[in-house]
Known about the structure:
heterodimer, A: 269 residues, mainly alpha, MetI-like fold, 2 domains, 13 helices, globular, B: 291 residues, two-stranded antiparallel sheet, 14 helices, 2 strands, 1% strand
Amino acid sequence: MKKPLIYILLIAGGLIFAYPFLWMISATFKPEVEIGSIGLWSSNFTMRSYAAVFQKIPIGRAFLNSIFVSACVTFSVILFGSIVGYALSRLRFFGRDFLFGLILFTMVIPFQITLIPMYILMVKFGWVDSYMALIVPGMISAFGILLFRQFFMDIPQDLIDAAKIDGCNDLEILFRIIYPLSRPVIITVGIVSFMGSWNDVLWPLIVIRLQQLMTLPQMVTIFAVGGQADGQLGAQLAAATLLAVPIVLVYAFFQRYFIESMATTGLKN
Amino acid sequence: MKSAQLKTRGDKTGYLMSLPYVLYFSLFIGFPLLFSFFLVFHKWNIVMPMQWIGLRNFYRLFQDIQFFISIRNTLVFLVIHIPLQITIALLLAILLNQKIKFKGFFRALYFLPVIVSGVVITILWQQLYAYETGLLNLLLTKLGLSKIPWLIDSGWAMPSIAIMATWKNVGLYIVLFLVGLQGIPRYLYEAAEIDGARPVQQFFHITLPALNSTMVLVVILSTIGGFSLFIEPFVMTGGGPMNSTLSAMLYIYNQAFYFGHMGYAATLGFFFAFIILLVVLLQKKFVERKD
């Protein structure tokens, strides 16, 4: 294929992906009557849509909730994923292969089957309308364990033996010797679980009803669906933009890691 | 031999370190699985005591036209979404795999919708699809074409959601296909060129067969994703117009959390999960090439 044609197609593709986002951001600054236009520029740019969002919903609180929940989930998935991954890859114990098979099996179970029982469990634990319901069910992930296990398998045994001779126990080996070598897998698991938690909306919709505990995507969803936006398109788009901006900012700096992480997760599945 | 001895030392540490997962599994996977099997024989709205009703949830399911409509809608979504996604992803991946500049930039751009929450994408596209003021219809009008009733016509609504979902997810599949393409040895193409194979022949006889495992992955991942279709119709259409975008997940959600039919919703989830597994197994069987 000719080079110019390739570039034309790639740029056309780029516009199709980028323009809607640019249009959205511009629309959030346009007055309501000008939103239905193709162009990006308006001579009447205003902050009114954002003012409406901040006035109608406690979106700052939702942002903090989301940060807190996603940080806890990510930290825990990394911590427990690496501990269990270490046991599965570097230790030998009766039932280990069964456990590994079990973890693989759980990845095949569609979440649709456990969704309702999980909700009932939250009700019985009294966790509905609490951070517990948002955090605890996400604290361990099978894919996290599997990625750590696979990474740890390739670490030379000599390194571990040397540490054992120095009197390190297994946890010390994991945190002192193996962690410093595991940056790539920690980043991968971290990005994927943070994004999964940050963007999840079905589960929060189910277990959280109190406005002050809602996560950001949940609050934005309810704002758009539940009529609080009073049909103001600008305000809905502004809320959506506020939800997108943090993750896009992080993505702008670490896009290579994001893409590689998501791709490896896809491939390993 | 020494290393083997050290590795064997003590089952106890292994059990202790696996304990978090065992606890997690029992509580959040094992118990819900067993409990869902228990729930399907009961009528329950959480508040009142549970009531054993035998197989009545299943009788009800098989007469529940709305549920089958919701499954049909989900399949309509998949039938549009998957081929569209594969075609576009493959095309852009092949373009990106050429010797070009700014490769990383384009890849990052196409990937952008993947990292953004589905809620954002849905709110944005709801505006793009708006009949009078939406960007797409404004563009169509400018080109002298007639407007499309994207979300307000029962024939168009699900295809519209499928197009949007493709736009959101295709970046991930571009990257997966790129990885696959980079694994194809160059000499295959060089040999084909010497034999006089045209680019189209090369594509069908070298590229496509070599990408088979990626293809299986893409089909299965998008199928699993498609069966979870929920937030898009929830925000955009509420399942309408005329139930045309009522996805199976949305229907189960409504049964459980709008009507409070926990036992019945669990039955639906149970049945739906089997359909998912069945479809994925069939896809694996038919898409995967045996060598």
